[in-house]
Write a sequence for this structure.
């Protein structure tokens, strides 16, 4: 059965006249002339095949068929108005789903706070966090598995944009009674005599890259590479080894594990935390809006997650 050729303007005119029982009042509501409203109702009656109103010089009343027809179309118009409201929310970045990938510390300690603050402005935007290894972030954005990603700096192709947010130096984390905890600052050669563990292949590669510019006598090699930063921090807390990571993990290392942070200098190596956005894929208004807010939030709040070195 083909769909009837009713227009929304016709249906809107019909319901307005039904509510007011006046073509003049309906015209005022719709910002039209009474003759324009009358013409729309006549067109609707022609398409429907029956009279909707009984008209006289004194009154306007729904016909029996008009009453039944009104009952049938009111739910339709209600859903159409809800659809228009939803479309307006989407256009205004006020609603939608956003998927964000991040490594463990950022996903658990930083992103939830940024989402909480954004929810106060855009309560209909739903943000879902995806835990991911650092080396997976760029590919997840490029493939469309997530809308955005945030994490340490990684190389990107021409399909993903990298936006630097804040800097975080590479530091050493160790137990308070560790021999290295007695020093205020460390040189890379100071680490050679001590067991080190790193978390993730990304950290392993980063540590290896740091070694390239050092003299042979100052180069260091981790004794082990674990998958998760929480494991590396736990090993360090037990005094089995020290670990190297960006300073922003201090939200875990200091508060949860009671570790001491020591900066490693000569040279000091700095890591950038970045936001990753797709370049070739059209993103939703909700994703674009959250990305802009997240960039501002991280640039303002991110450095606060980098603690100052403790005194020895």
């Amino acid at each position: 059965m083909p769909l009837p050729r009713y227009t929304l303007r016709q249906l809107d005119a019909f319901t307005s006249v039904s509510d007011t029982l006046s073509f003049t009042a309906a015209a005022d509501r719709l910002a039209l002339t009474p003759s324009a409203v009358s013409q729309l109702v006549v067109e609707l009656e022609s398409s429907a095949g029956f009279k909707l109103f009984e008209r006289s010089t004194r009154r306007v009343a729904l016909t029996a068929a008009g009453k039944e027809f009104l009952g049938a179309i009111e739910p339709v118009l209600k859903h159409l108005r809800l659809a228009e409201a939803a479309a307006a929310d989407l256009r205004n970045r006020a609603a939608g789903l956003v998927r964000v990938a991040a490594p463990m510390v950022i996903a658990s300690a930083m992103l939830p706070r940024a989402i909480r603050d954004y929810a106060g402005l855009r309560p209909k935007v739903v943000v879902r966090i995806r835990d991911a290894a650092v080396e997976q972030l760029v590919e997840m954005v490029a493939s469309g598995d997530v809308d955005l990603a945030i994490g340490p700096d990684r190389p990107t192709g021409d399909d993903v944009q990298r936006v630097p947010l804040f800097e975080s130096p590479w530091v050493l984390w160790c137990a308070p009674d560790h021999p290295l905890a007695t020093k205020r600052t460390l040189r890379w050669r100071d680490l050679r005599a001590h067991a080190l563990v790193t978390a993730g292949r990304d950290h392993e590669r980063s540590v290896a890259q740091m070694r390239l510019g050092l003299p042979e006598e100052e180069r260091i090699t981790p004794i082990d590479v674990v998958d998760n930063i929480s494991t590396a921090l736990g090993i360090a807390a037990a005094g089995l080894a020290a670990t190297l990571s960006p300073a922003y993990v201090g939200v875990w290392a200091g508060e949860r594990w009671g570790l001491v942070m020591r900066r490693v200098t000569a040279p000091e190596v700095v890591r950038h935390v970045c936001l990753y956005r797709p370049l070739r894929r059209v993103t939703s208004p909700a994703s674009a809006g959250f990305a802009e807010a997240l960039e501002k939030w991280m640039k303002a709040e991110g450095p606060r997650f980098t603690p100052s070195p403790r005194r020895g």
